[in-house]
Amino acid sequence: MKKILILTMTILTINGYSQKVSDILEHGMLVKDKEGIFLRWDDETKTITYEIGKSSGNFDPLNSETFFLLKGQGANVYLSPPLNPLKFSSSIDTTFLPDAINAAAAEALGSIVSGINSLKTMGANAAGLPGAAAVPAAEGGAAAAAAAAAAAAKDAKDCSTKLDQVIKDFESLKPLLESDKKSEIVAIFKTLHELDFTDQSTTGGEINSAKTKRDVIDVYYNSIKVLLDTTGNHIDAYEGCNSKLNQKFINVYVVRQMLHDAQTIHQNFKARLDNLDKAWGIVNNTFKNAKTSGTTGDWYIQLKPRVNMEKEKITSFKLTIYEDGYKLSEKDEIVKADKKEKTSITLKFRKFQKFIPEVSAGIAYTQLSFPKYATETDPATGKLRVADAGKDEFKQMNFTSMINFNYYLRNSPIHPFWQIGIGANADYPTFLTGIGLRLNVGLKRLAFSMGYAGTWINTLQTLKVNGEVASDAELEKDLKHEFSFPLKPYIGLQLNF
Q1: What are the average pLDDT values for consecutive 10-residue runs of the chain, which has 497 residues?
Q2: Domain segments of the chain: what residues?
Q3: CB–CB of 94/335 below 8 Å?
Q4: pTM score
């Protein structure tokens, strides 16, 4: 009997694992083969909703108790619509955890089998992007340089024509460098930054429009580059002209410094455009990777890696959304935004089982009788004989440890189940098997069952009642515990944690 009590306490300890069973039965969501999970992030409410299917549709709230039950070996998870990469980024962390439900059931079932064997034995024996740096204005400006160059040209008639050309080049560069196109770049960036990716056609149109406007600016900047290169060639020609005047060397130094300053300004223009190109590139890449549902027209992008299942494991799929991407600085330059976590949620995946095992404890009522034997002296012969000592009858509650194999029904207030278990009362343990119902409403997580119970009783092997026996020891040796038939009906009540 001590072994049976230990078995019962062991199963009750295992029952601590069964908290997850309620999540499966009450919050489990079936995901059929080739179906996916679509997630939607709402930046205003800071919530994530979900939908299961082959395309996105109606989205429901997602909470930490939700379990996704996979019929296949894996599933794809999507974001619908995609996040604007100029505002957000996401990360996926996948881990595999032991399936505590099956582990608890296997351990409990093993304990029940071990307990039954014990009974038999007992009977037999008794980083950031570069911004546009500030560029110091060219000293003296084009007009001052032109005046200085013109004065020098008076003493160097053979170089005057070449110097005049350099001056004309700077006069052409001046208005081009004064128009930096920064406001146009900022406007393009703001348009990209505000895209919500809810409509493929609108988003694609805005991305293409931004590219067209960007190309116009690029042509403008390239025209400056061409003129800068031409100016550099003209300065080289002026420096090589035949003049012995010291003023020429001064002029060359001045115009080369002016050219360097102009090139620095142009490089800053290009750096600003390069930053816009990076922003446009990640937006366009997200656009190209997104897909559209042919059924609903909703737009989504797959989160990677794909959810995969391992044997006897639960997959934990953690999605973290960050405030990230790019922004405008106080000086309206495109810079990398600071990465800050906005929300995270863990999706739990489990291999689908039609019958979900749950270890529970409770009480059962059944009527069992146990025959007893003794020795007595035969009045006629004076010898010991086997006597019928009556029966021990029990009509009371038996403490039980059960495994309920719950039948999964989505969003059902009740779950039918088949159960097996061990009951223990005094020196008469019982084996129980039956069917029942588990409640998910009202008296939540209570289970009512009925079935048949059997026990192991003492039976005579070679001796017979009223037959001669040498001693009490011989009687005890002849007794054997055997499973009794017929089985007796029982009713039970279990509490599921």
Answers
A1: 41 43 87 91 87 78 89 92 94 91 80 60 37 39 46 58 92 94 97 92 95 97 97 92 73 92 96 97 94 72 92 92 95 95 93 91 83 89 89 71 89 91 71 90 81 87 90 90 84 79
A2: 20-111+295-350, 141-289, 355-495
A3: no
A4: 0.71
